[in-house]
Amino acid sequence: MKKYKAVIYDIDGTVLNTLNMNMYPLLKIIKEELNEDWTFEQILKFAAYPGMKVMEELHIQDKEKTYARWVQYVNEYEEGATLYEGFEQVFPQMEAAGMIQAVVSAKTKAQYDIDMGQKGLDRYMKAAILAEDTSKHKPDPEPLLACIARLNLSPDEVIYIGDARSDELASKNAHIDFGYAKWGNVAKEDMADAAFVFEKPSDLLQLLD
Question: Is the N-terminal amide bond of 201 cis, ω within 30° of 0?
Answer without folding.
Answer: no
